[in-house]
Amino acid sequence: MIGTSRPMIKACLNSFISAHRHVKKPAISSLRYATTDEGSKSSRTSRLPNGPSLEHFIANSSKTTNSATSQTHDPIDKIPYIQKSALHGHGKKVYFDVYGCQMNVNDTEIAWSILDSNGYQRTTDTTEADVILIMTCSIREGAEQKIWNRLNQLRVLKRKKSVSTKGSPLKIGILGCMAERLKSKIVEREKMVDLVCGPDAYRDLPRMLADTSSGQASVNVLLSLDETYADIMPVRLNADSCSAFVSIMRGCDNMCSYCIVPFTRGRERSRPIDSIVEEVKILSDKGIKEVTLLGQNVNSYRDTSESQYAGGFESDSATHLSAGFKTIYKPKFGGRRFSNLLDKVSQVDPEMRIRFTSPHPKDFPDEVLQLIQERSNICNQIHLPAQSGNNEVLMAMRRGYTVEAYMDLVYHIRDIIPDVALSSDFIAGFCGETEKAHLETVNLMRQVKYSFVYCFPYSMRGKTHAYHRLTDDVPEAEKARRHMELSSVFREEVLKLNQAQIGQQQLVLVEGKSKRSVHDLAGRNDGNKKVIFTNTEVPCEISSKELKPVTPGDYVVVQIVRATSQVLHGVPLYHTTLQDFSKRQTTSQRYCNASTI
Ligand code: SAH
Ligand code: SF4
Ligand code: F3S
């Protein structure tokens, strides 16, 4: 149902497997695939000494539960007790199951890149897999329940396989946030799990898989202060897509009281700008037309990797928070910020759309807003997670703002970027939420008029501040009712917003065939709204007589003729480029303004 749940991605990584074979090793030195050999050249700030230390053995021991705050990156071919050949996959087939947020898709691409360069193959058929790796999410109880259900199915498959292959049993691994949250408890509850690997330990996957051959489970859930996988070129799961994800930072320091993410993803750290720009260049060379910059707090980005930017204590180098917002942590100084990164990334290819997710409302200084407004390829779309429209609830959530400060930011953003599409996250039935507080959230939703909303019933998570200090006192049925009400108010409002776009000519990046009709194509407008339009040949450019079919990755101008709460329907008019469309818009706006003076 639209707007009621973040799309839980369960991507069977089909059809794309062949593509990674054609991905060339980039010519640049700082961005490379992880191979055991290259791993040793990795320029890391913290390293292990040549000999194994105590930490080394703890990290690599079987059936251990580790949650250190810093991890070093040891070249895996130097691990003393494992033969280099054991780290090689020898063509073993890996199947990936991906759940959770976009970061999990990108993390799977990183994990796959690491295994790919260590001699593993990918399969899209569970029955022929030697290894099944499940990329998991812990955000709500329901997200974890899905994984337990999946493990129940896989238990049957594993049993069958061990009978039919006599001695080379299927290996099952849990990766990601649930691995980090539950650690070796997973293996205690589900004995058939062979491997538990946290979000900062993917470089260790070849060793961990080798380790499972002893019949023991292998667990590495060390969190890191500096791991960003900056030197690993992810191997894209969907090579047919004209869009790609690029991770720019990991972790979260915000500690919202309901949220498990700081505990599963660790401390905030940013990937160096240059490695991000290099990856974007490679994607542009491959014809990618849209890049989404990813992070748990994407706009808190702060690259301190180069000493001249590392920062002192001058007040002007402190993080500029949006007016009326505060953080639970002390101000951070120095570093190249999100506006510097957006500036650089958006200059790589003016025909490439740039989006970013998930940001926090506290980190929207004017530099970022101005840049979004000025650069035609940075989409006019901002996710601005509100969570609640009531000040007591916001305080209990430790969000660091009031609803008034949030609304001031909304007005300020709309002043600078008038046609911006805003989206948000909301939680229904947080601890202590009264009916009055809920109605204030409904009110906020009506006031802002979001183009998209993710809404979740509150799910208490262990370890969080709310778990220790607050009472989960809204009955489940009431949470469900409030959740439904928020969803239907959102749909009511967004229908009006979408209908107001009828008659507009919009720039659409074509994604492919529409799922609903073989005669239609689907794409996204600048605000990330889905646009469905007839699959027909259209002029090569605005005034051309020559017709051309419309294919994925093309920019076309679509006249919007109909709208539902979920999608816009339109008629394709002509092919264009992002820059031409934007010039035409600016000229017609100028013309419009002149004629009204
Ligand atoms: N860093 C991002 C979001 C990460 S989690 C941000 O701050 O926006 C995505 C969303 O999941 C959150 O915005 C919140 O709305 C929801 N969420 C997180 N913890 C939750 C919980 N315990 N119960 C219900 N929803 C939750
Ligand atoms: Fe969770 Fe808050 Fe961090 Fe988002 S900002 S990941 S909601 S702690
Ligand atoms: Fe889930 Fe972890 Fe993402 S908890 S939402 S997979 S950061």
TrEMBL record:
**TRAM domain: residues covered:** 499-574
- Compositional bias per record (Low complexity), positions renumbered to this chain: 59-72
Is the Metal-binding keyword given for this protein?
yes
Kindly list the GO molecular function terms attached to this UniProt entry. 4 iron, 4 sulfur cluster binding; metal ion binding; tRNA-2-methylthio-N(6)-dimethylallyladenosine(37) synthase activity
Report the Gene3D superfamilies cross-referenced here: Methylthiotransferase, N-terminal domain, tm_1862 like domain
* UniProt key word S-adenosyl-L-methionine: yes
- State a GO cellular component annotated for this protein: cytosol
- Give start and end of each MTTase N-terminal domain: 92-214
Tell me which Gene Ontology terms the entry assigns under biological process: regulation of macromolecule metabolic process; regulation of primary metabolic process
Q: Which cofactor does it need?
A: [4Fe-4S] cluster
Record keywords, A-Z: 4Fe-4S, Iron, Iron-sulfur, Metal-binding, S-adenosyl-L-methionine
Q: Where is the Radical SAM core domain?
A: 238-496
**Ranges for region Disordered:** 34-75
Family of this protein: Belongs to the methylthiotransferase family. MiaB subfamily.
What's the protein here called? CDK5RAP1-like protein
